[in-house]
Amino acid sequence: MRSRSFFFALVLLIAFTFTGESQGQDIPALLSKTLDEAPSLQALGSGKGTVVLRDMNYRLLADGKTEKTTTIFLYEGENLPDSWRNWEIPIPVGGEASVLESALYDPYSRRVRFPLIPREIERDGVRMIEVRLPNDFEDNILVLSYREVLPTRMNLEDAVPVDLDLAQWEQRITLAVPSGVEPAWLGENLPEPQVSKNGAEDIYTWSIINTPAYEGASLSPEKGRWLIFSLRKGIQYSLSDAASLANSLDTPPPPRVASLLKDPDRSRRGISIMEYMNDPARLDRSLPPDLVRAPAETPAEGPWTEWEGSFLLGNWLLKAGWGVETCWDSRAPLSDGSPATVKAWGKPVLSVKQAEGKPFFFEIGQAVKPGSMPPRLWGRTLYSLDGGTPSRKTLPSGGPGDHRLSFNWALEVAPDGMATGELTV
Description:
Layout: H1 2-17, H2 27-37, H3 41-44, E1 49-60, E2 66-76, H4 82-85, E3 86-90, E4 96-105, E5 112-115, E6 119-123, E7 126-132, E8 141-150, E9 158-161, E10 167-178, E11 184-186, E12 194-198, E13 201-211, E14 226-230, H5 235-247, H6 255-260, H7 266-277, H8 306-319, E15 323-330, E16 345-353, E17 360-362, E18 381-386, E19 389-394, E20 408-413, E21 419-424
Parallel strand pairs: 1-10
Antiparallel strand pairs: 1-2, 2-8, 3-7, 4-5, 4-8, 6-7, 9-14, 10-13, 11-14, 12-13, 15-16, 15-18, 16-17, 18-19, 20-21
Helix pairs in contact: 7-8
């Protein structure tokens, strides 16, 4: 009864507090202020580029949806990754997305040099807004500001990556919540938020200065830092929301899988289905990995997102007579009182077993055969629901033999003495 009363009170408070749309920012003034406060562009410059400002503002709207406004000031580099040149902003089902500003600015005059025209596109049933940068825009600052309305249900929730593959001078994450409502949040090695009272709302702001580029590698167990927040607490809610999302995707298997399901050998049909889904061609890496479309919009034969593929594979293995439990690898270590949001999960991992066999873990994209532990999972803690109760499994770290690194160097020597070949790690 207490949680129900709290929810009703929160609904009333939101209705009286947030009755309008957010006001647009003065982008030129913000750019000038940011450049005045930052070190010189020469000091910030790198071969790839530098994010001078990354600003994200969250607030609840009167209908319970979340408004998120993102502003990026990017000082270009000669070797800027394509992921920073080509921006695709998905338009959420039941929500909105719009670009407020997209242009290349002169860092000295701080005026627009080249406007960038956003356009709406559709890929595999997903509507999105695309902003593309020219191949060569040296000595400019990309200014991109966009607004999203996310179909949340009276909750302010998200998981924000703090460490990116580019250096960042200033990051600001701001939450505007009803006065007296304290968000639950977690983040490793992050500063406490600054809290200010603004009448009917409280403002929580995390300010992070001078974040170096994060060079994540497959040999490193580190995942980079995340800021996770929600107006609800409880890992059980994060898990139950994830389970509801997984159960929402139940579509008929494609013809190839339907054929594999007819194999009379239960063990072989399960392994074959896992190998089918583990084919890189089955996944669409251009879409957000945690995007889950409605069944009617999910491609019948792929490609699927990482989460969609995991959920479908679990359904197919159940049809094949295997036992399946969906576990979750979190973006950061979680406790019972952690923020309640499905955004806390980084990737689903399936625990599968034959009728009389031992269970083993399988994740889409693993480089080892089904039945072998994916190297990425050694030492990880996975979370799942056991009869409605949160359960944690800390996987073994493995022995020296499980972490061997092998090199295979195939060389050919030409008549002129030049050696060429291929190195496989």
